[in-house]
Structures are given as C-alpha cells and as structure tokens.
Design goal:
Alpha-Beta Plaits, single chain, seven-stranded parallel sheet, 3 domains, 27% helix
C-alpha cells in the first residue's frame, strides 16, 4: 500500500528520507512510514489511484442562507474527491474520515487548523493535501489491522491522540430539509430544483424535499444554501423505532396503576405530549380516561395486537409515576403523537413535526423517549421554540453505554435523563456532561393482563415526565418550578425516588 504524507515545504526530499530511516528503525519493516515531500506528491498520486478505495464519505454541514454549504464528497468507487469548505475545523473533518474509512486516525495534541478548500474530482492524495494545507500527514499500513492516519505539524511520533470516529448517523438519501424565510414560496423553489415537497411543518415554514437521485440532491443543496430566501438547509436523518417491551416472568411484580381522573380545569391543564410510536387503546383498568385523542404525522400504524408498543409502555410508565406522586387521582392527561406510523423508522423531520404538533395541541411537558446521534438544526429550532413557550422537554439519554451525544436529549433546553438502578448507572446507560438527571431504567407494565418489562433510558425519561406532571398537578405549581423539582429529585448525584 502507498503512504501519503504531504509535508511542510521546508522538508527536502533528503530530509524526509532521513526522517523515514529514523522512524523505520523503531517499528517493524511492515509498518515503515513513507514521508513524501509536497513536490513529490504528484508523482505518487498515479500510484495511489491504483490502490483499493478506502474511503466513502459525504459530509454536509447545515448552513445559513447566503453562505455556501460545507460539503465533502469522497467517491471511493471513482477514487475522486470534491469539496467546498469555507471555514471548517480540523477535528470534525478527521472524525468524519475516521468514521467513513475505518482508519485509526491520530493527531498531534492541541493541533489546530482551519480547513478551507474548494476543488472538484481530485485524487485522494491531492485532496488531502489541499484539505490539510500546511499540516503534515502519513498513512501507515499495519498487518491484520486497519491503517493508521497520522496528522501532525512537528513529527509523526507526536501524532498520539486518537480521534474518535464521528457519530454514526443514517442520512436518508435524496431528501433535504429546508426552512424558508418569511415571504418565500416553497412551490416556486421546488419547481426550479425539480423537487417534490413531501412534508411541511405549519408555522415554521419548514419543508421536506425529495429528489430523483444523489446528483440532483447535491446540486440542490448548493443552490439552496446560496439562496437568500432560505434560512436553513440540511440532511434528513433516519431514527430507528425504539424496541418494544419483553414479556416479564410472573414473580413479585408491582400491581398495574390505579388512577382516577380528576376533571381537568378549564385553565392550567397539564398535558404530557408523548412523541413516540403508535399507542394501543384501550389500556383498560380505567386508564383510557387519561389518554387524549392520538395524533399522527406518519400515517396509520398497525401495531402487533399481541404485544405492547413502545408508546403503550411509555404511557403506562408515566401513569404509574403519576400515581406515585398524586396518590391515586390526577387531572394530568397524555397526548400521544405517533411519528413512526407503519414504518420501522422515523426521521428528524418527523420528530420535529411531532413536537410542533404537541406544542400546538397544548402540551406543556413533552416526552422524547427516542432519538439518534444525528444532529438536526431544524429539530433544535423546534426545541428552542417550545422552550420559549415555557414547555418542559424531557429526553432519553440513549442506551449505547457511551458519552456520545444522543439527540434530541443532548440539545440545550432538553432535560436529558439516563438510567439509574439501585443508585448505579447500568452499563447500557449513556452518560456524559450533557446528561444531568437519572431515574429508574426498568418499568413493569401490563398489556392484555400480562406483565411486560421495558428496560432503558426510555423508561427513565417517561418516569420523570410522569412525576413532573403529577407534581405540578398535585401542588398546583407553575411550570417555572418544574426545573427545581427535577433538580431536587432526579439529579445524578441524588438517588431517584423508588418506584
């Protein structure tokens, strides 16, 4: 395999070879590191083109109107790279490369570099040289392991800090999310782009556009990013449906919730928006009085009648939590909003629309026991809008057992809840400086008179949502006191109340 290492111009070919010899003496011959000077890179590019394609990457950063979108298109099949990056940062670029290539990327600690490059159809070696500028790099092959990409300014030996791959997100092909400025008409814009409008969010001037192929999508991205009528353009991310509960072994289990509905007041109703899968009704045991007419943004669902859906489990978890706080009677009601419909996955656009519908229908607490690692500017915009209306958003931190941000829980303005069982974080529970609260991660619910178990941070978030609703209802407190209640009872440092 050929190594690439565009070096700073003060290295002569002889100096580079001398450094190679020094490094080669400290590693096995198979890992020998070839450092090529910038002026020798062109001669090596032809050889590089004959190597197997190692990297396939399409990077899109959402961009405000009037600025070109930051894009990097790395075509592994054609072994060609195109880029249009105005002011990117080095580490995010390397994170994306690590995720797409499988290379283990190492960077010299504290290395900073502003990425600015625009080119079309270059071989990977030349592309890396332009992307990294005066930063040196080398690709080191290893036996039975993925290659190492070393990025450094001084010496290769100092490239010791491992760059974690970027979060793995699922971009929905041939779709873009667009938010227009006031006065702009989506029909006119879609017609010019040859796009179909397949979704809209009332009140936000936000739309989902669909295109015939990847080439049309990429071209539209550039045009939309430069259009002064466009406030936002970004990819639409796929979000897998959270898992359904498993049947629980009949042992010492808690009883189903028993609640009586107190007639909700004309003013000051407490409504928990449950943005999730489809709920199955009736719940039975008098619990249906607490469920408002469900909404859907994704079509009619057909859940399995023999097992509870995720939303059904979340609703009953909330009702159990409400019962614990209110001692058996409450006027809190749950508004189910289905963002999955009959599909195995939703999208960031669907979730944004689901939150908007919950807000419009009067929800003052919104439970988000779902998510992904895809960071959506539109979703963040909808959350900021809800927060400005004094709505409390509670999100599940995720079940991968890592510190990788999980959205929407990781957004500012969302109370992110992880699982805490017996005072400890289970191994599956996500954690990090973006997670502030913890609650029980196991909930027993009843469906068709049988017990079912749901385990994960989804249950933790639902538990907090129900407890908060019950607290506000039973104490007649205002929503301005909600954060104090959550901090006092569910901070990670404080053990959550027993269920």
């Amino acid at each position: 395999m050929i190594m690439l290492a565009p070096m700073r111009t003060h290295f002569s070919p002889k100096t580079a070879l001398d450094r190679l010899a020094e490094i080669g003496r400290s590693v096995p011959a198979l890992l020998a590191l070839f450092l090529l000077s910038r002026r020798h890179l062109a001669a090596r590019s032809a050889a590089f083109r004959r190597q197997p394609a190692l990297l396939a990457l399409f990077l899109l950063l959402s961009s405000p109107a009037g600025h070109a979108a930051e894009t990097l298109n790395w075509d592994a099949r054609q072994n060609r790279v195109s880029a249009d990056i105005k002011s990117g940062k080095l580490r995010p670029l390397l994170e994306q490369i690590a995720a797409a290539s499988g290379w283990r990327v190492f960077i010299e600690p504290n290395l900073q570099h502003s990425v600015s490059a625009k080119f079309q159809g270059l071989p990977p070696g030349e592309a890396l040289r332009l992307l990294l500028g005066d930063i040196s790099f080398a690709l080191v092959p290893e036996t039975n392991r993925s290659p190492r990409l070393l990025v450094f300014r001084t010496t290769a030996q100092r490239a010791t800090e491992l760059v974690s791959p970027a979060p793995k997100v699922k971009i929905i092909p041939n779709q873009l999310i667009v938010r227009l400025k006031p006065g702009a008409r989506i029909d006119d814009i879609a017609r010019l782009l040859g796009a179909r409008v397949t979704g809209k969010i009332d009140g936000l001037n936000a739309y989902r556009l669909e295109f015939d192929d990847a080439a049309a999508t990429a071209a539209a991205l550039q045009q939309l990013a430069a259009n002064p009528q466009v406030a936002l353009v970004e990819n639409n991310y796929s979000i897998d449906a959270p898992p359904s509960p498993n049947q629980a072994a009949p042992s010492a289990l808690p009883a189903p919730p028993h609640l009586e509905l107190t007639p909700p007041p004309a003013n000051g109703r407490i409504i928990i928006g449950l943005v999730d899968t489809a709920i199955q009704l009736p719940l039975g045991n008098g619990l249906d009085d607490f469920i408002l007419k469900p909404l859907s943004v994704a079509g009619t669902a057909n859940p399995d009648p023999d097992s509870p859906s995720h939303a059904t489990a979340m609703a009953e978890t909330m009702l159990s939590s409400i019962q614990n706080v209110t001692r058996g009677s409450s006027s809190v009601q749950i508004l189910p909003v289905d963002v999955f419909g009959p599909n195995p996955s939703a999208s960031s656009f669907d979730i944004a629309e689901g939150i908007a519908q919950a807000v419009n229908a009067g929800a003052n607490i919104i439970n988000l026991s779902l998510g992904s690692e895809g960071d959506s500017s539109l979703l963040q915009t909808v959350i900021r809008d809800a927060q400005s209306k004094n709505i409390v958003l509670i999100g599940a931190a995720g079940n991968s057992g890592t510190t990788t941000p999980f959205y929407p829980a990781a957004y500012p303005g969302v109370d992110s809840v992880t699982a805490v069982d017996n005072g400890q974080l289970p191994s599956y529970a996500d954690r990090g400086n973006w997670v502030s609260f913890g609650a029980p991660g196991t909930s027993i619910i009843y469906y068709n008179n049988l017990p079912w178990s749901v385990v994960g941070t989804s249950a933790s978030a639902a538990y907090v949502s129900g407890a908060l609703g019950g607290y506000l209802d039973s104490t007649h407190s205002g929503l301005d006191q909600a954060q104090s209640f959550i901090r006092n009872n569910f901070s990670i440092s404080a053990p959550p109340p027993a269920k």
